Amino acid sequence: MKNYPKIGIRPIIDGRQGGIRESLEEKTMNLAKAVAELISNNLKNGDGTPVECVIADGTIGRVAEAARCAEKFENNGVGATISVTSCWCYGSETMDMHPYWPKAVWGFNGTERPGAVYLAAVLAAHAQKGLPAFGIYGHDVQDLDDNTIPADVAEKILRWARAAQAVATMRGKSYLSIGNVAMGIAGSIANADFMQEYLGIRAEQVDMTEILRRMDEGIYDKDEYKKAIEWVKKYCVPNEGEDIGNRDVKKKNREEKDADWEFVTKMTMIFRDLMTGNEKLLEAGFKEEALGHNAIAGGFQGQRQWTDYKPNGDFSEAMLNTSFDWNGIREPYVFATENDTCNGLTMLLEHLLTNRSAIFSDVRTYWSPEAVKRVTGKELSGRASGGIIHLINSGATTLDGTGQCCDADGNPVMKHHWELTDKEVEACLSATTWYPANRDYFRGGGFSSNFLSKGGMPVTMARLNLVKGLGPVLQLAEGWTVDIDPEIHKVIDKRTDPTWPTTWFVPRLCDKPAFKDVYSVMNNWGANHGAIIYGHIGADLITLASMLRIPVCMHNVDDDKVFRPATWNAFGMDKEGADFRACANFGPLYK
Predict the structure, then answer these.
(1) What share of the chain is helix, strand, coil (3-state, %, to 5)?
(2) Helix, strand or coil for residue 249?
(3) Would residue 389 count as lying in a domain?
(4) What CATH number did the domain enclosing 296 receive?
(5) Is 529 annotated as a binding residue?
């Protein structure tokens, strides 16, 4: 992206002049500046630049000033607003009325002026007008001359801002389906109405034959291809694994494997060009192809019409999802294998909240301690002692998922791309083996990545599901990647496909029914795939989902971390039931 949305800061004030307004001007603007500084110092866009804030030219005491603020925000690319005040103000006159901008209000907790009274009044106005807003009110009273932001207030402002920036960033973009439905997977059915009404993005689609056309007609950057294939030969071909997945009759010879490497490298470039365009194609005379589809996420059908005939998309999908390629370190793309749009869009939400690469996996198998003992003769231990979930797919997983990067304390981590070093890039590549594709699955060949994610990484697994009559629902599980005894891994990994990448996952358990044990998490998962991101971001996902009016049906986040629009409180005292009722009442954000 070249232009990211900005967050608008609205300093709200008591409009009565002759003593009251004048005494509050400096205080109110200082609060606005403190919020802008908090956001810009702590949140980044996908390219690593700070999230920018735009502050109204002056305080807002009456409707005319609110209108001037709205005009400035429209002209400066604002996509969400937070109002701040320490005093009483005129609620319905000063509130943000934009129907699509996520909104928050911080009412300063001070006794000298009734900021909390305005907060309550304006939140009631937002509820009455059907424009839900998040209410932020500090736990402890502050002095009027104290312009610091307490920790509890800062936490809520940043949680709201992360989600609000995600909403604004994807608005107006596209999801690109390359192909259609893979093997009857319902998540592959791109639901254009859902994308438009809930996420503000359009559904774009091209047939898979477009890949062949561009290859046959040379519609790709030839100079980049030379650079790319040299990089592949340096870092990937030497890590090519022995063809252990195929019978002799199905094994490809060296010449055929080299042709596959050339093919999948070109395919990766073409996938990317289809998503975002490429100015180099314009220079070559391909004006239409140079445009791309303005896609912020995408997916490739592959199976089976493609993979029965041509090399699979695993290499291309893995590299697009990874934070680097032959052009160096960069922001990862969001790209779904099997064109599972529901999982790809979940990956998108996670990426927009964290700016990190997301893992795409089958939620393949729950291994109980008893089953592990029966099959391997060994016992699971440590965090894995209560059972594990095998996350594995055919090789489209981001290489960031190897866990080869480390934080300052030596713990494995999936870093932001701007934090990566060349040494860490090489470590991720070295930890990845590229096995010739299993041609019982992929008749056309290709390559599948194989690695074992390091244990000890905090992660959140999530999934969007579409339910007839209900609409979209989100489920999530915070937990950790875990290390298990190498002998246990060796035995049970071979029972699936040892040429594919594995992540062993253990969710955090609690007293909620779906999280009473590891089996229950697996048993309550709503689809065959999951999107896994580094960090425990369940609370942020819940906040984001509420902005989009998507209820959350399953989570293991502590109740005191759940932050939704204030009017959700009007829909009952059970938080999850209230979430469903509120989302149904207000309907999709863009409908």
Answers:
(1) 40, 20, 40
(2) helix
(3) yes
(4) 3.20.14.10
(5) yes
Residues 226 and 260 in one domain: yes
Number of domains in the chain: 2
Mean pLDDT by 10 residues, the chain (591 residues): 93 94 94 98 98 98 97 98 93 96 94 85 97 96 90 98 98 98 95 98 98 98 98 98 93 97 98 97 97 98 95 98 98 97 98 98 97 97 97 93 96 98 98 95 95 98 97 98 97 92 98 97 97 98 98 97 98 96 98 89
Do 116 and 244 lie in one domain? The reply is: no
Burial of 330 (0-12, 13-18, 19+ CB in 10 A): middle
User: Which residue range forms the structural domain that includes residue 434?
Assistant: 174-586
Residue 1 is assigned to a structural domain of this protein? no
* Residue 417 in marked binding region: no
Residues catalogued as catalytic: 338, 362
| Residues 154 and 227 occupy one common structural domain | no
* pLDDT value, residue 113: 80
Are 219 and 318 in the same domain? yes
Radius of gyration of the chain (CA): 25
**Count of Cβ atoms closer than 10 Å to residue 196 Cβ:** 15
- Residue 2: the pLDDT is 80
Q: According to the model, what pLDDT value does residue 223 have?
A: 98
22: annotated binding-site residue? no
Q: Are residues 424 and 556 in the same domain?
A: yes
Nearest to 264 by CA among 328, 333, 211: 211
Q: First and final CA of the chain: distance in angstroms?
A: 26
The structure's pTM equals 0.97
Residues 164 and 307 in one domain: no
How many other C-beta atoms are found inside a 10 Å radius of the C-beta of residue 148? 10
